[in-house]
Amino acid sequence: IFVIFYCLYRYLAKTFPQAKSYVKPDWIVVLGDIFDEGLSASDDEFKRYFERFNSIFDYKNHEQHYIIIPGDNDVGGEYYGDTQPLLRQRFRNYFGRIIALYHQNDIQFLKLDMDMFDSYSDAKRSAVMEQTQNRPMKANFRIVLNHWTILTRTVRFIKAFINDIEPNIILKGDSHHFSIISYDRISMKNTILAQEHLSQSIFTLDLTDKNVIYEISVPTCSYRMGVQRMGYVALFLDSGKLI
Q1: Helix (H, G, I), strand (E, B) or coil at 237
Q2: Tens of pLDDT along 87-119?
Q3: Global pTM?
C-alpha cells in the first residue's frame, strides 16, 4: 500500500513514478488536501487541477487501485461552518463516494469524510454503518482512512466509533507531519510510538491485540507545506503485522 498526503507541485512528477516503481504497491491512498486552491477554485479550475493530478498520479489507470480522501483544502472542515455541500459533491464527481468500503483478500479499507467538527452520531454514523451492514469489518487488516485524526477526539466519540468499526489501523493526513500513536481500549490512553522519524529503518506493528489500535499520521510529500521532513509512506501487511 502506498499512502500519500498530497499537495500538488511540479517535482512530484519526478519523485512519485520513482517511488511507485520501487514499491510496486497494490493500493495507492491519498489522504486529502489534493489541491491547495480547492475551496476557492471554480469548476473549470478544479477540472484543470484534476487533469494535472492525473498527469502525475495516473489516476485514470484502472489497473491500479486508488483511494482518494477529501481534505479541508478540498471541501472545507477546518473551521466551523466552512464545509460546503457543493464542494463535497464536486469532489465525489471526480473521485467517487467520500464514504465507502473497499475489500481485497484479507484487507478492508473504510474511506471516511469526518472533519474536525463532526460528531459520531445520527446521519454521520448511519452513513458509516451503511457501508459495513452487509460486509462487516472482519478482515485481519481493518484500515480506516480519514483526513482528520480519530484517536485524539473525545472519549465518547472514540469509544462509539471503535465499538462499531473495530479498526486496527487508522491512517490520517491533516497535520503534515509523520507520527504513530497507539490507543489502548482498556485504559483509553494514547501513547506516541514515533514522531517525525522512525528510530529504526523497519518499524513493525503487531495487529493481533484487539485492545490496541494504531493511528499513523502520513507526512506531506510537498516542501511547500513548510515542514522539514517530507516523504511517502509504504505499508507492508503480512500475517497480522504491519511493517
Answers
A1: strand
A2: 889 999 999 988 999 988 889 999 998 887 788
A3: 0.87
Cell digits of residue 72 = 479541508
CA distance 230 to 107: 27
What whole-number distance in Å separates Cα of residue 53 and Cα of residue 193? 33
C-alpha cell at 78: 477546518
8 A C-beta contact, residue 102 and residue 64: no
Residue 36 vs residues 67, 80, 100: alpha-carbon distances, Å: 19, 19, 24
- Stretches in the chain below the pLDDT threshold 50: 7-8
The C-alpha atoms of residue 161 and residue 144 are separated, in whole angstroms, by 11
Nearest to 77 by CA among 25, 50, 38, 51: 38
Q: Which amino acid is at 11?
A: Y
Residue at grid coordinates 486529502: 32
pLDDT, residue 225, reads 60
Whether residue 98 contacts residue 140, with contact meaning beta carbons closer than 8 Å, is answered with no
Q: How far is Cα 99 from Cα 48, in angstroms, rounded to an integer?
A: 24
Answer whether 84's CB lies under 8 Å from 78's CB: no
Domain at 2-238: CATH architecture: 4-Layer Sandwich (3.60)
